[in-house]
UniProtKB/TrEMBL annotation:
Residues 1-18 form the signal peptide. The chain crosses the membrane at residues 34-53, 65-83, 89-109, 130-147, 153-175, 196-222, 228-249, 261-280, 286-307, 328-350, 392-415. It comes from the Eukaryota. Residues 1-384 form the Major facilitator superfamily (MFS) profile domain. One of its GO terms (cellular component) is plasma membrane. This is MFS general substrate transporter. It is a multi-pass membrane protein. GO terms for molecular function: transmembrane transporter activity.
Length: 431
């Protein structure tokens, strides 16, 4: 499955590289997304299969370091690509890493082969449940992203995908419980309130991380008038704080055998960090906003590994692989929700402020285009007002994220203490 996921990601990247239209681009991105999602999930499943639970947090810390390194360097590389070359390099850059992975994985990961054929394995996958889940989630996100910006919240165009998406989620759960022979959604991993709380916190954590990172770049571009490269560089304090804190947290959890302290402390510091960042304004000094980014990064970094350790400790030993996969799914769901709902929040507040000053609310629908146009304008009272409006909308988004972090703290109180000293139920080994 790992090789299949890497292969799909590679094929999707190649299609995007050669794309000359929106249809081929969407096809390529869809295939790439399926492969990327598989890579994220199978990575965690492999670790849960070959590493005892007590030591797993430390190794997951290494995995998070790699993931966070890529996430942090991406804005800088993206900025360079935007300024220096063609967008196709966003996909060309994947291919060497895909080639290295395809060449090394067969020789570095060894496992006990199942006694069934590949065809039987593929037929055992819960394709109907997976497809229903993907379609439902997509429709829900489309409705969320349209609400209040493209169309009014009360319009049928917004409500239809929202309601159909929610109904689809409910149908997915019913199908998985009653009809799926080999369900991809194991209900046993949601066995108690601790498990439910841990997964909910995972969604909220990813929501906060990606909404902050995504729209922080927009603030740096519009309000601080930085270039794309400099915006990526100035965002680094947030991500580069998450990286070592996440790794150190994994090592600490392995040493002490407890994870609750990191979850609770992470939410407290995340809430404080988001609260401090609400004070960002056009005249905020570099030292001040770097300090704010670091405060938020420490809190969010504490959550990455501690929540992963929690969901695996809470789940039965036989379901740890499913718990790892669900953790990856919830994290990806939080990413999607953070970018889409975060954009809706930002655009709705931006639209409200524009109307307050008698400006066209249509600007909110094309916020990124407006930002690019604004940066090329000479200094003027109108430009100053526009920057203040964008800054206010960003502050409202951060205030919302502060509330979400506070909600995460409240929910995390329901996460109980479970032993990390479990026997490894696997025959797989790593070379």
């Amino acid at each position: 499955m790992f090789l299949l996921a890497i292969t799909l990601f590679t094929i999707g990247s190649i299609i995007c590289c050669a794309s000359h239209g929106i249809v081929s681009m969407l096809v390529g991105r869809s295939i790439q997304g399926i492969g990327g999602g598989g890579i994220l999930s199978v990575n965690l499943i492999i670790l849960s299969d070959i590493i005892p639970l007590r030591q797993r947090a430390q190794y997951q810390g290494y995995l998070q370091l790699c993931f966070a390194f890529g996430s942090n360097i991406a804005p800088v590389i993206g900025g360079l690509i935007v300024q220096k070359t063609t967008w196709r390099w966003l996909f060309y850059i994947n291919l060497p890493f895909c080639a290295i992975s395809l060449a090394t994985v067969p020789f570095t990961i060894r496992y006990t082969r199942p006694k069934i054929t590949t065809k039987e394995q593929l037929l055992s996958i819960d394709w109907p449940g997976i497809m229903l889940s993907i379609a439902s989630t997509t429709l829900f996100l489309v409705g969320i992203s349209w609400g209040g910006t493209e169309y009014p919240w009360s319009s049928a165009t917004t409500l239809c995908p929202l309601l159909i998406g929610l109904a689809g989620v409910l149908l997915t759960v019913i199908y998985e419980i009653k009809y799926a022979s080999v369900p991809f959604l194991r209900m046993s991993i949601f066995q108690n309130r601790s498990a439910i709380a841990a997964y909910a916190c995972t969604v909220l954590m990813a929501f906060s991380v990606y909404a902050t990172a995504y729209y922080l770049v927009l603030w740096l571009l519009a309000v601080k008038e930085m270039s794309a490269v400099m915006a990526g560089v100035c965002e680094l304090p947030l991500g580069l704080t998450i990286v070592p804190i996440s790794g150190a947290t994994g090592a600490a959890i392995t040493r002490v055998g407890k994870y609750q302290w990191a979850i609770w402390l992470g939410w407290v510091l995340s809430t404080l960090g988001m609260g401090v960042m609400v004070q960002l304004h056009p005249d905020t000094s570099t030292v001040a906003y770097v300090f704010m980014f670091i405060c938020a990064g420490i809190g969010l970094g504490l959550l990455f590994n501690s929540l992963s350790a929690a969901v695996q400790a809470i789940s039965p030993t036989k379901d740890v692989a499913y718990a790892s996969s669900m953790f990856a799914f919830m994290r990806s769901l939080g990413l999607c929700l953070g970018v889409s709902i975060g954009g809706t929040i930002f655009q709705n507040f931006l639209q409200r402020r524009l109307e307050h000053y008698g400006l066209s609310p249509e600007i909110a629908k094309q916020a990124q285009v407006y930002v690019e146009a604004l940066r090329s304008e000479p200094a003027s009272p109108e430009k100053t007002l526009a920057k203040q409006i964008i800054n206010w909308a960003f502050q409202m988004l951060l205030a919302t994220l502060c509330g979400i972090s506070g909600l995460g703290l409240v929910i995390s109180a329901a996460i109980g203490r479970y032993s990390l000293d479990k026997e490894l139920d696997s025959q797989h080994v790593i070379a």
